[in-house]
Amino acid sequence: MSSFDFDFFVIGGGSGGVRAARMAAQRGVRVALAEALGTDGLGGTCVNVGCIPKKLYSYAAHYAEAFEESRGYGWEGAAPSLNWATLKANRAKEIARLNGVYGNLLRGSGVTVINGFAQLQDPHMVRVATLNADGSPGHQTLTARHILIATGGTPHVPHFQGREHVITSNEVFDLEPFPKRLLVVGGGYIACEFASIFNGLGAQVTQLYRGEQILRGFDDEIRHFLAGEMRKHGVDLRLNAGVVSIEREADGLHVLLEDGNRLVVDAALYATGRVPNVADLGLEAVGVVQSAQGAIVVDEHYRTNVPNIHALGDVTARVQLTPVALGEAMKLVDHLFGPATGKPPRDMHYDLIPTAVFTHPNIGTVGLTEAQAREQFGQIQVFRSEFRALKHTLSGSQERTLMKLLVDATTDRVVGLHMVGAEAGEIVQGFAVAMKAGATKAVFDSTIGIHPTAAEEFVTMREPAR
Prior knowledge:
Elements: E1 6-11, H1 15-26, E2 31-35, H2 44-49, H3 51-69, H4 84-108, E3 112-115, E4 117-122, E5 125-131, E6 137-149, E7 153-155, E8 181-185, H5 189-201, E9 204-209, H6 220-233, E10 236-239, E11 243-249, E12 252-257, E13 262-265, E14 267-270, E15 274-276, H7 283-286, E16 309-311, H8 322-337, E17 355-357, E18 363-367, H9 370-377, E19 380-387, H10 392-395, E20 401-408, E21 414-420, H11 424-436, H12 441-446
Parallel strand pairs: 1-2, 1-6, 2-3, 6-16, 8-9, 8-14, 9-10
Antiparallel strand pairs: 4-5, 5-6, 7-15, 11-12, 12-13, 17-18, 18-21, 19-20, 20-21
């Protein structure tokens, strides 16, 4: 009989933590999971204030342009108006449903779910701050053979005059009232997505980014193309621009910019990066090594320098994507407790991770950027197609689509695939499978396209652009 209370103690009820806890419990392991937000917050950033609500709001934002575009197809009459309160209420209802689903999945798998904030006491002991039945503070001290930290990340706002007046992506979903004038600061995917969303919902959006172009790390051609499309949709995107100070006045927030200009807005959203959520976890006391930015340092098996303490997902700041955390969780559980009966141990690879950005229009991408491909392979072929989608021949929209393939000239293997256009994420997911399987340009060329679709363009590009 083990001398520990649990075999596996998970700190954090987000995507990675929940997946690891469930899978471990299915192996017959005694598992506990502590989530500071309680069962109402299960699902982490993705479910509560990230992927899911953001995608729901993105759907909502598309309706305004869809109503307008429908006129080219013969639909007449006044377009409906947005009821912001209804959207917020329906989103909250769906998130609450998902919270419940996560809780039921955990308990149904045999996981002990603890509503409280867990802190490391030593390599095998955690102290969980909880509430007693009468509402007074209490705590539990528990031991475990293995401990997993999966506490995710949190938005970072730099220090400047007026910082107290801004909001982050955690608060933006429940703004009241609806911001008719919204400032978005940042140039990453979160900033670009919310700029597109609120522009689509009817706000006057100004987006500021200190860099030379949005979406650093993405393919340069994709970055420039999307910036142009976002401006075409109505976002006032300003590059090489930043905020000096923000003051609240009777008519709104007065924003002083670095170039001396001023803006008056109803709300200012800062999407200037995320940092690992490690505050008060007790890492220093136990001796868990962290990076200069606070990320927990782990090896290829997600083990910290303290052998029985592991970490995965955004708290390690490797690749901050929900499906990556899920993949890491499955690999860790197989490594610690063995794979499922009849299954090989899972592995996790960080190349060819498909990604979507739910701007208007969307981005879908998998593999290398053009610059990375040239650096890695030297000789490459670039296939490129830009066009106005069939839908917009009648809709009146001037939106254009860009699709791009990068091919290693030596092996003919497709090493990068990028798209800006409607449903780009849905389209690129399937091509990611082909690229994982090592598809060559010849395989793409021999594949029959589905006509008429935008996706067929990926298998009909014959002549390299350069």
